[in-house]
Amino acid sequence: MSTSSSPGDMNWIELVENSDSLTKMYGGKVPSLLELNLHEIELHRDGPTLKLRFNLNSFPENPPIKWTMENCNTVQIELELRPVADATINGIHNISVVDIDISPVTLNDVDVIRVRTTGKSTSQIDAIGERIHLSKVSAYYIQNKPSEPDQHSPD
C-alpha cells in the first residue's frame, strides 16, 4: 500500500464522523489511541466495511449519569471504515493490545483515511477507506482495572 500523508496537525477525532458526543463527553480532550484493548475486527461486504471495537484507556470526567449509576469505569467504542478500498490483517490473538493510527493520506491522488494498528500485539491491521464513522459508544465495569487484562466486554 503506497500512500503519502497529508500535511497538517489533524488529530484522529477530527477525522471521525459522528464523534461530537465523544468529544463532548471528554470535555474537548482527545482520548489516546495508544495501548488499546482491541476486542473485535470485522470485515463486512456491505460497504465494504471494516469495524474495530476497542476500549479507550481513559474514562471521561463527566460521564453520562447511567454510566455512573452502573459503576462503569471503561469506555468502549466502535469505529467503521467505509467503503474500504484495501485492507491487510496479519495475525490474530485472543488478547490484542494495539496502538491505532487514524490519519488522512493521499492514494493515487485521492484523499482517503488510513487506519493502522501497531504495538505489542500480534494483530496488525492496515486499511484504507473513504471515511470513518463512530458507530457506537458504550461503557462497562472492569474489575481490578488496569492491572488485569480485560477478558469481558459488552456485546
Tell me the Rg in angstroms.
16 Å
Strand order of the largest sheet: 3-4-5-8-7-6
Number of helices in the DSSP assignment: 3
Separation of the first and last Cα atoms: 33 Å
- Count of structural domains: 1
Helix content: under 10%
**Helices and strands, in N-to-C order?**
EHEHEEHEEEE
Main sheet specs: 6 strands, antiparallel, barrel
Average pLDDT for all residues: 87
Q: Briefly note the structural class of the backbone.
A: mainly beta
User: Low-confidence parts, pLDDT < 50 over ≥5 residues?
Assistant: 2-9, 147-151
Shape: globular
Topology, number of strands: 8
What is the beta-strand fraction? over 45%
Please, could you describe this protein's structure?
- With 155 residues, the chain is mainly β.
- It has one domain.
- Helix content is 10%, strand content 48%.
- The protein has helices at 12-15, 20-25, 65-69, and strands spanning 4-5, 16-17, 36-44, 49-55, 74-90, 96-107, 110-118, 124-140.
- The chain has a 6-stranded antiparallel β-barrel with strand order 3-4-5-8-7-6.
- The longest helix is centred in the first third of the chain and has 6 residues, at 20-25.
- It is globular and about 50 Å long.
- Mean pLDDT is 87; it is low at 2-9 and 147-151.
